[in-house]
Design goal:
mainly alpha; transmembrane helix; transmembrane; membrane; ATP synthase protein I2
Length: about 110
């Protein structure tokens, strides 16, 4: 899904300030790690899946701030459209993770 979203986003916004390769590589990897970690939590302690999700999302947010320091730079180097070019896929992947967690919680 990350590769398909990358190509669609590249067609929609051909020259973003934050590299799409960096963005989608980070989001794809972070989502894979998050879902894998949540699968382990769901298998071991399914009643703590929500806490695991919150913890991993905070880690993912911190990693995004560390790997993309231009998002919080003092000089507003990024316009709102360029910031949206990063946040739209970020929230798309977040909603996918939420959907997976909701499905697993409903299975309990």
């Amino acid at each position: 899904m990350s590769i398909a979203a990358y190509f669609i986003h590249g067609w929609w916004s051909p020259d973003p300030a934050i590299s799409l390769v960096r963005t989608y590589a980070f989001l794809g990897t972070a989502t894979f790690i998050t879902v894998s970690g949540l699968k382990i939590v769901h298998r071991l302690v399914p009643d703590k899946l929500g806490y695991g999700f919150l913890g991993l999302i905070f880690v993912k947010c911190g990693a995004a701030i560390l790997l993309f320091p231009e998002l919080i730079a003092e000089d507003p180097a990024l316009s709102k459209a360029e910031l949206l070019n990063f946040l739209a896929p970020y929230f798309l992947f977040l909603f996918i993770e939420v959907g997976i967690v909701i499905k697993w919680l409903n299975d309990n």
